[in-house]
Write a structure and sequence with these properties.
- Helix content is 21%, strand content 29%.
- It is an alpha+beta fold.
- It has two domains: 183 residues, BirA Bifunctional Protein, domain 2, CATH 3.30.930.10; 44 residues, Roll (SH3 type barrels).
- The strands form two sheets. The protein has a seven-stranded mixed β-sheet with strand order 1-2-3-7-6-5-4, with helices on both faces.
- It is globular, with a radius of gyration of 17 Å.
- The termini are far apart.
Length: 235
């Protein structure tokens, strides 16, 4: 029997599924506990960004994990890609994207990991634009914006089946070793062999290492392994 997704708390509206999952984790919720919601009023991403989606249009959920995994964020990205299929790709370190005709990467899903190893828990949050109408999104992430969103264009009835597929793939990947996860990442790496920039440098992304770091070759020829931060395609 699959462990992820049981027990489950589903909310029609909440500030953040990660916040609710953090509370449950701190109070002793078991491994696999799932918090899902139809709407988030204060959904969060990395670097303080917000997650915006009209009510009932995105798959929004967080999991309590009691087994430490250094690759949880990347494994979640692979799980989403496997669940939704082509043309989704993992953009290191925590997004799932679709490449647009103009070469830009439009964000389909975001992942946020919050860990408290000293307390024995990790919360893994995932948001997927499953049934989002892109025209209803804020201008800063709408069509033609510098940071566009993407959507699967599904009917709302398809959200629960998609959740089941993601949870199944995620359980498989969290139980695999680092070599297996990074091998799948290699097939789905949106940045591989592309010209990128990051705070402090520019160069070419060469792939994701077994420990989850992004290997890049700077314009000077030096090899660097990035551990965190935002990486963008260089125009």
């Amino acid at each position: 029997m699959r462990e992820l997704g049981r027990p489950r708390l589903h909310l029609r509206r909440t500030d953040s599924t990660n916040e609710r999952a953090r509370e449950l984790a701190a109070s002793g919720a078991p491994h696999g506990t799932l918090v899902s919601a139809d709407e988030q009023t204060a959904g969060r991403g990395r670097q303080g960004r917000t997650w915006s989606a009209p009510p009932g249009s995105a798959l929004l959920f967080s999991l309590v994990l009691r087994r430490e995994s250094a690759l949880a964020s990347l494994a979640a990205g692979v799980a989403v890609c496997r669940a939704v299929g082509e043309p989704a790709r993992v953009k290191w370190p925590n997004d799932v994207v679709v490449e647009q005709r103009d070469g830009r990467l439009a964000k389909l899903a975001g992942i946020l990991v919050e860990a408290r190893p000293q307390q024995g828990w990790t919360v893994l949050g995932i948001g997927i634009n499953a049934a989002v109408d892109l025209a209803a999104l804020p201008a800063e992430i709408g069509p033609g914006s510098p940071r566009p969103a993407a959507t699967l264009g599904l009917e709302r009835a398809a959200l629960e089946p998609l959740l089941e597929r993601v949870l199944g793939e995620l359980e498989r990947l969290l139980g695999a070793d680092g070599t297996s996860v990074t091998a799948e990442l290699g097939e789905l790496d949106a940045l591989a062999n592309r010209s990128v920039e990051w705070d402090g440098g520019e160069g070419v992304a060469l792939g994701i290492e077994r420990d989850g770091r992004l290997l890049v070759r700077s314009d000077s020829g030096a090899l660097t392994a990035l551990t965190a931060g935002e990486v963008r395609l260089r125009r």
